[in-house]
Amino acid sequence: PQAIYRKDYHQPDFFIESIDLHFSLDEDVTLVHSQMVIRPRTTNQTVPLVLQGESLVLKNLKLNGQVLNTHDYQVDKIHLTIPTVPTQSFTLETIVEIKPQENTALTGLYKSSGNYCTQCEAEGFRRITYFLDRPDVMARYTTTIVADKNRYPVLLSNGNRVEYGELTDGRHWVKWADPFPKPSYLFALVAGNLHCHGGKFVTRSGREVRLEIWVEPQNHDQCEHALQSLAKAMRWDEERFGLEYDLDIYMIVAVSDFNMGAMENKGLNVFNAKFVLCRPDTATDDDYENIEAVIAHEYFHNWTGNRVTCRDWFQLTLKEGLTVFRDQSFTEEMTSAAVKRIQDVRILRTSQFAEDQSPMAHPIRPESYIEMNNFYTVTVYNKGAEVIRLYQTLLGKDGFRRGMDLYFQRHDGQAVTCDDFRAAMADANKMDLSQFERWYDQAGTPVVDVLGTYNALEKTYSLTLRQQIPANLQAWHIPIAVGLLGKNGQDLPLQLATETNSNRTCIIELREVEQTVTFVNIPEAPIPSLLRHFSAPIKLNFSRQREELAFLMAHDSDPFNRWEAGQQLAQQVIFDLLADWQADKPLQLDPLFSNAVLKILQDTQLEGSIKALMLTLPTEGFLGQQQAEVAVEGLFTVRQFVLQQLAQDHYTQWLTIYKANHHTPYSNEASAIACRRLKNVALHYLCRLDTAETTALAEQQFTQSDNMTDQQSALSCLVNTTGTAKTIALTRFYTQWKENPLVLDKWFSVQAMSYLPDTFENVQALLQHSDFNLKNPNRARSLLAVFSQNQAQFHRADGLAYQLQADIVLQLNTLNPQIASRFVSVFNHWRRFDPARQALMQTQLTRIIQHPDLSKDVYEVVSKSLN
Ligand code: HT7
Ligand code: ZN
Q1: Which residues contact 700 (CB under 8 A, 6 or more apart)?
Q2: Sign of the C-alpha dihedral computed for residues 223, 225, 228 and 232 taken in this order
Q3: How many Å lie between the centroid of ligand 1 and the Cα of residue 269?
Q4: What is the pTM of this model?
Q5: What digits encode the pLDDT tens for the residues 456-469?
Q6: How many A from CA of 323 to the centre of ligand 2?
Q7: 3-state DSSP of 111-154
Q8: Cis? peptide before 525, omega within 30° of 0
């Protein structure tokens, strides 16, 4: 397969002004009739018209009303080429046959639970009809859908419903018109038997918008939170960015088979049901938060993505990084800013920093790809969002808003680049942001070493910051937020030698390889709090004693850094214990760490959700990333030891916390969520002790809970116990929830996450379970993707789990290449393990690459991994 390069971008030779689509949906074949008005980019050009098309059977082709002879055009597996076309605007009509019912790749038009739906991003529209399937070709769409009225009473597409009617043969039709020109990736069609949960929203300019959540009828009672979330997002975008919705209707359809989270098609979002459906007894607090965030994310795309779209797919972060930043900011304001920031940084550091260390490392604006679907990554999305956050940190909230306003003023209705966005930010603020481009074209995580010096005579404190610049790269422009704590734990007023006023937190703009800043009037040797709120996506090295970390953990006014100090302290403790374990020394938990944890447990001021996060140790995956070679068994053993020890040391306090928070009645309020988080962390510690008493607590919670957060949490404690309680609870959960696929996914996941040594065998058995279905991405992920994150069990020394994973990848390669490629990515990190595991993973990668019909998706990942 051939790579495509960013540097090779050319404007299209033709534009498509409008497309009139007609779908005749039938159980055997679906007919797609398209009529396009095509305009050559320049007059008198003599270039061929090359349209993309895949898995299509061409039945008819007319140019300006004339049927074309077979010698007037060529069709291959992925193109329709017409060598000679008029030099002025012309119409092109095609009729193609497709078979959505056989489409297991879930891209293009496919069936899910008997209903038709589409997924066109990135390049799925070409599996529906011949088209210039690239985002810089923006057309006006009208769509007519014809289908059997009984089976498919609901027929939806983008824009407004303009006409409808019935045919004499039991079929009916609906015509939709979208007034906004859009790229093909935003096209959508849905047909099926669906229930509508409706509502309305009045925009700030007084227009009434109809809101509709469409779900399978049995899910009618799980839509209200999605509807509320949508209304909240619409209001927030008006208030924060002055952005109003532009159509009369906004529809969301929930489907069970979906490759990703959701899709922002204009006026007709298609969602993975997981991010729509919820009820207290079926969905956890995290599910509720994720639903609100994903609904907001797709809604925000209406401006950042749809009204202003990407010129080409290399610019994906233009819409995704920006929209993730917008949804993160929304959630920060709807919930707790500190909790949200910690959660987002955890994702960034565990997944994106790992991607940076892998053979798939790429800048947020990649230079090349073989298969675009492989670049919907944590780098493009989450690091992309961090880069947008940097603008806000550098320019301030108001400056950022000025930049956004100018961006929309300049580019509404256009397909643009990341450079256009950066120019809007720079111009609106009269700031030179040229060095900032390096965030877009340099891959990897910047590393900054920091040294602090206190001068008691001068009463100054200096920080010297030095960027480690890899070969061929240049210094980044990095804002570093800093505070200085006095001995009493309070922030000292900060005044740079060059400034007159003082602040509690100061932003140092690091632009050079090395820079020193000096704070004046510092009365005592301070303890610096660095990179507050995680002000840049970097690794910062600053050497600290455990006492200092414990101090920051107890006192830092920046909640993010308070949490961060705790994580660093835990990491130091775990790595020292690991060295002892490797040297066959007995393990003993440092009382300083145990006491620091006790202080958190006893802190009555700390908000419950933050407290729960502070009581959670870094994961094995994260710890492994900090090592030159991942110590699979050692990390597992030592981390388990620390958890067990903390459970023992503070048994009474865990029990007190558990009891104090257990009887809070269920509500979706932040305070009730915090109680559940805290009590469930406590329950997990207690259950580490695996006594009759602790198991009884979990069993009681499991049987008596009225909400899924508590039920799932208790179940995940019970699967790690060694008595009969585990089987009883699993059977009970299955019987209770076997008719609800999203809850059943949790049943698979909980078992895949177990840290007991028989987990692999259980996963193998679950693959044979009658409810397991590899074709359903949610189910496949719930068991296999979750298991692959279970570091100690997945990376078993015998390599059996690797073999199983490779078998699955090869099956998925034919069924659903996008999911196959996600699943094969777990091997990307194979070089970070010990030689024996490396050899075992390499064997599987080699087996995969030798497979005769490898998809582009899997080929790209595996070939880069092996290189
Ligand atoms: N913009 C959407 C991306 C997406 C997608 C991409 C490839 C294959 C399937 C997909 N489903 C959705 C989702 C988003 O970021 O909002
Ligand atoms: Zn998105």
Answers
A1: none
A2: negative
A3: 11
A4: 0.98
A5: 999 999 999 999 99
A6: 6
A7: EECCEEEEECCCCCHHHCCCECCCCCCEEEEEEEEEEECCCCCE
A8: no
Angle, CA 243 vertex, CA 240 and CA 245 arms, to 5°: 135
Q: How many of the other CB atoms lie within 10 Å of CB of 260?
A: 18
- Asked whether 857 lines ligand 1 (CB < 6 A), one says no
Whether 865 is in the pocket of ligand 1, judged by its Cβ within 6 Å, is no
Ligand 1 center–CA 262 separation, angstroms: 6
The CATH number of the structural domain formed by 1-193 is 2.60.40.1730
Enter the tokens of residue 395: 């320019």
Fold designation for 447-536? Immunoglobulin-like (2.60.40)
- The pick from 323, 376, 856 for probing ligand 1's pocket by mutation, whose C-beta has the most ligand atoms within 8 angstroms, reads 376
Q: 154: which 2 tokens?
A: 């609901």
| CA dihedral over 69, 73, 76, 79, signed as positive or negative | negative
**Considering only CA atoms, which residue is closest to atom 1 of ligand 1?**
263
Domain ranges in the chain are 1-193, 309-441, 447-536
Instruction: Say how many Å lie between the CA of residue 22 and the centre of ligand 1.
Output: 25
For residue 856, the one-letter residue type is K
Distance spanning both ends of the chain, measured CA to CA: 15
**656: region left, alpha or beta (phi > 0 left; psi from -120 to 50 alpha):** alpha
- Sheet architecture: strand order including 66-67: 66-67, 57-63, 90-98, 30-40, 14-24, 138-148, 171-183, 160-166
- C-alpha to C-alpha distance for 100 and 117, rounded to whole angstroms: 9
Give the residue numbers annotated as catalytic, written as ranges: 298
Contacts of 218 (CB under 8 A, 6+ apart): none
Q: Are 495 and 521 in contact (CB under 8 A)?
A: yes
Residues 6+ apart with CB under 8 A from 284: 707, 708, 709, 712
Average pLDDT over residues 597-613: 97
- Tell me the pLDDT band of 792, cut-offs 50, 70 and 90: very high
> If DSSP codes are grouped into helix, strand and coil, which group holds residue 799?
coil
CA–CA distance, 649 with 319 (Å, rounded to integer): 49
In this prediction, the answer to ipTM > 0.90 reads: yes
Q: Whose CA is nearest to atom 6 of ligand 1?
A: 121
- Asked if domains 1-193 and 447-536 share a fold, the reply is yes
Q: 309-441 has which fold?
A: Neutral Protease; domain 2 (1.10.390)
Which two structure tokens, joined as six digits, stand for 790?
A: 């279970």
**Any ligand 1 atom below 6 A from CB of 376:** yes
Mean confidence (pLDDT) of the chain: 98
> What is the rounded CA–CA span in Å between residue 642 and residue 296?
39
Read off the pLDDT of residues 148-160 as tens digits, 9 standing for 90 and up: 999 999 999 999 9
